[in-house]
Design goal:
The complex is a heterodimer of chains A (about 120) and B (about 210). Chain A is mostly helical and about 120 residues long. Chain A is built from 5 helices and no strands. Classes of the chains: A mainly alpha (about 120), B mainly alpha (about 210).
Chain lengths: ~120, ~210
């Protein structure tokens, strides 16, 4: 990595300290496989308290996304990656806003709406 | 040097104001990273639609009766291993090892084709069983979300073919390596979206 690139920060996906190479991807693959198998197991296991399964699945999925970002995309919070990391943080923020916001609004609308058969009676 | 000073001056000690424009590789990579994040935000809207509509089955089949977990696990393995082979291909490209780049990108392509074949057969069997996208709001949301992801994978495969042709005709020129490296980012991002798909759509099916 030449001097200029170092001074300008790094693009995502470039391992700034090239010494890892294939090993980084293999470690990432190991973690990702572990988390994938764990979530498939959790979804059909009777060992986990049933109402807790969605929370467990969400945790495993977020952990696996973190593994992919760190080991495959090589985005980290290092000072030379500030631009990539800030963009990622904003992306995660907007994603959360859209998904959680939509679910919350639609659940409230559903809650406040008249049941469908009542609505049908009114129209007659 | 404190963390704040390091952020301002970088490791090379060049002050922010004295640095020239960033090299094309960094600019292209960062721009593509922004595109990927906005693409993920588009997927977030589809995920939100799916989450809201997943109970609206209109008397039709629900998810739990339609999806087969072993098949989804196989799809996940295809995409995950293709992400790793794509990473190996990118490393080989940065080493200027053309043969290894062809090899790893070829494996990436085959794994992508496997993924699309499994997904296509799943869609075909669902439509044949009368659970097509027009049957209920749940199925519309399902086909929109999973179909958009599949469409991205298809576009990625076409992109990969074009990149292999450019590698053959142009060689490892900076513009070719830049494009191939952006393809790698695209492929990894699709794998991240797939984590959301298999967790929310397939494992979370009621």
């Amino acid at each position: 990595m030449d001097m200029q690139v170092e001074a300008q920060g790094h693009a995502p996906g470039v391992d700034p300290h090239e010494q890892h190479g294939k090993r980084t991807y293999l470690i990432g693959l190991g973690y990702a496989l572990l988390l994938t198998v764990a979530s498939f197991w959790a979804s059909s296991s009777t060992l986990v308290y049933a109402p807790a399964v969605p929370v467990l699945l969400a945790t495993l999925a977020i952990a696996q996304m973190g593994v992919h970002v760190a080991f495959f995309l090589h985005v980290s919070s290092a000072p030379d990656q500030a631009n990539n990391f800030l963009a990622l943080a904003f992306g995660v923020f907007v994603t959360g806003l859209i998904v959680l916001g939509s679910i919350m609004i639609m659940a409230h609308l559903n809650h406040n709406m008249m049941p469908m058969d009542e609505l049908m009676k009114m129209q007659r | 040097m404190s963390a704040g000073e390091q952020a301002l001056h970088g490791f090379s000690g060049v002050p922010l104001a004295l640095r020239g424009p960033a090299p094309a590789k960094v600019v292209a990579g960062f721009g593509f990273w922004l595109f990927l994040l906005s693409d993920i935000i588009m997927f977030a809207a589809l995920f939100a639609a799916y989450a809201v509509l997943s109970d609206a089955t209109a008397g039709g089949p629900a998810g739990a009766g339609l999806f087969e977990k072993p098949r989804v696990f196989l799809e996940t393995l295809c995409l995950l291993s293709s992400s790793v082979t794509c990473g190996f291909g990118t490393l080989a490209m940065f080493r200027a090892d053309t043969r290894a780049t062809y090899f790893w990108m070829g494996i990436t392509f085959l794994l992508g084709v496997c993924f699309l074949t499994i997904e296509g057969r799943e869609f075909a069997s669902m439509v044949a069983a009368g659970a097509g996208p027009s049957h209920s709001a749940f199925l519309s949301a399902f086909f929109a979300l999973v179909g958009t992801h599949g469409l991205h994978v298809s576009v990625g495969l076409i992109w990969l073919i074009i990149m292999m042709l450019q590698l053959k005709t142009l060689g490892l020129k900076p513009m070719v390596t830049r494009r191939l490296y952006c393809f790698g980012l695209f492929w990894h991002a699709l794998d991240i979206v797939w984590i959301g798909v298999f967790t929310i759509v397939y494992l979370g099916a009621k």
